[in-house]
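[Q] Does anyone have a clean structure-token version of this?
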Amino acid sequence: MLKYHVMPGRVSAIDVEKLTTPKMMQGQMAAITKDGDKLRIGGATITGRDITASNGIIHAIDAVNVPAKK
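[A] Here you go.
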């Protein structure tokens, strides 16, 4: 489940806004939508953007996204 919350590479919020269905590290696609100034990935709203970490960029979300069963 954790890998479904990770996009490969360093993807800034500006770049996330340009994506529609990125492939997550877990292997499935996640839908990205924009509603006004709110950016959503799956069922979660991105609440914190561009938090720099030593191993990438973090975007905080307000819910847990659950991948579809294969």
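[Q] Thanks! Anything notable?
[A] The domain at 2-61 is CATH 2.30.180.10 (FAS1 domain).
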